[in-house]
Design brief:
The structure holds two protein chains of two kinds. Chain A is α/β, with parallel strands linked by helices. Chain A contains four helices and nine strands, in the order H-E-E-H-E-E-E-E-E-E-H-E-H. In chain B, the strands form two sheets. In chain B, strands 1-2-3 form a three-stranded parallel β-sheet. A two-stranded antiparallel ribbon of chain B has the order 4-5. The chains are: A alpha/beta, B alpha/beta.
């Protein structure tokens, strides 16, 4: 099978003006993926399916990733020469910037006809609040239908062109998206004998430790 | 009902066995009534998750729940006496389970089978799982296990039969269906925007009191 770089080059040649980048996976699996822009997403998916060299005729998995806003601290070092002729001083400047968050949808594509894969396709939304629309790939691969509904349900990505975009796991009146990083679950804590981690924090909130006894009675001295 | 004598029979068990040996059966209405219904508990044909597989195994030839009179799994709640909540109750499923319980005629009993039905089990910290069906339904027997073996279910059933045989049919200790002052229906929770509303039936379920131990002096 072609490498992701080769696929990227062919996509860029076929769709001038589109944006395709290879997202490198540094883990031993080295399963690099293609990040494509949402505007050309569906045409590119159709190309990947129909291309005689790739023939990616099966979409086996659709999932979502939540990238919350994060604060990035950048350190810039500048060297200031000492006018007296000594060693130059190094000044560090720290600047903070907010990296905007987004929602990402990941598609795993295989070719049953040519027995190769996966090619990992990613698309990102503009932000996490109002620009959360991505093109649905259900018209390209029918198997995406339920899984895109699941991403809609749990992450809140709206799929443009999906034939039946409803919640699939939670009920229709449900408002939240439980797989987002900032989801706050309903507080129905119940006592556990050995709380730890997040559960310990909840336990402390629900059962605050009683105040220490005011005056501890002196223990009777045991005389043997 | 008031004319019926209380449970104490004015002869001893030994005397009664002696009469039975001579072909005379001496019994009370209450005993006969409890004997009859405890030996023909009809469960609802209903399963939620992997515990249901063990329940099915218990109903098949190897474990044979028919030995205890409960082989008649009813496909309709209108004909069932026993609700075996076998498996994880998701919040989306909980109103339907409560609705089934309300559709069953009294006298009815509920067995919470397995860790999930008791407390949410391994999914206790999840956002979508009800943390125990006893938040909405009065549970008679809890069977721990993940899943419990069929023998454990049979043991739970025998324990339930014991409970039925101990019930009185009149007086203040009578079960809820024989008393006018108790409401047998459980309110069905609604789907809310963030959780079930209400998240629990406060009459049936109270969270445990603070289990935090006082620090040692």
């Amino acid at each position: 099978m072609e490498t992701p770089e080769q696929i990227r080059d062919r996509l860029l040649a076929r769709f001038p003006g589109a944006q395709v980048t290879v997202v490198v996976n540094g883990s031993p699996s080295a399963q690099h993926s293609l990040l494509v822009d949402a505007a050309h997403g569906r045409e590119m998916a159709g190309f990947l399916r129909d291309d005689p060299v790739l023939k990616l005729d099966q979409c086996s998995n659709v999932t979502g990733v939540d990238w919350p806003e994060k604060e990035v601290v950048e350190t810039r070092k500048t060297t200031v020469p000492d006018p007296a002729g000594g060693t130059p001083k190094i000044i560090e400047e720290k600047s903070k910037r907010i990296e905007p968050g987004c929602l990402e949808v990941v598609y795993h594509l295989f070719s049953v006809a040519l027995r190769h894969g996966p090619v990992v396709l990613r698309m990102r939304t503009g932000n996490r609040t109002d620009a959360v629309t991505l093109p649905s790939l259900t018209p390209v691969w029918r198997s995406c239908e339920f899984q895109e509904r699941e991403v809609f349900d749990l992450f809140g990505v709206k799929f443009d062109g999906h034939p039946d975009l409803r919640r699939i796991l939670m009920w229709d009146a449900f408002k939240d998206h439980p797989m987002r990083k900032d989801y706050v679950e309903p507080d129905d804590y119940e006592w556990e004998p050995t709380p730890h981690g997040d559960v310990l924090a909840k336990a402390k909130k629900h059962f605050p430790a009683p105040a220490a006894p005011a005056a501890a009675p002196t223990p009777p001295t045991a005389t043997a | 009902m008031d004319q019926i004598a209380p449970t104490t029979v004015p002869i001893t068990d030994a005397e009664r066995d002696e009469l039975r040996r001579h072909g005379i059966l001496l019994t009370g209405l209450e005993e006969l009534y409890n004997w009859g219904r405890s030996r023909s508990v009809w469960p609802l044909n209903f399963g939620l998750a992997c515990c249901a597989i063990e329940m099915i195994a218990a109903s098949m030839a190897k474990f044979d729940i028919a030995r205890f009179g409960s082989e008649v799994f009813r496909p309709s709640p209108r004909q069932a006496d026993l609700l075996i909540v076998s498996g994880t109750v998701t919040k989306k499923m909980a109103p339907q389970v409560v609705r089934l319980w309300n559709q069953m005629p009294e006298p009815k009993f509920c067995i919470a089978m397995g860790a999930c039905a008791i407390s949410g089990g391994p999914f206790k910290q999840g956002y979508n799982v009800l943390k125990g069906i006893d938040r909405f339904i009065p549970v008679d027997i809890y069977i721990p296990g993940c899943p419990p073996r069929p023998e454990a279910l049979l043991h739970g059933l025998v324990q339930l039969q014991e409970k039925m045989r101990g019930q009185t049919i009149s007086g203040p200790d009578a079960p809820r269906h024989l008393r006018a002052d108790l409401d047998c229906d459980c309110p069905i929770p609604e789907f809310g925007e963030h959780d079930l509303e209400p998240p629990q039936n406060d009459i049936l379920f109270q969270p445990p009191a603070s289990p935090v131990r006082t620090p040692k002096a």
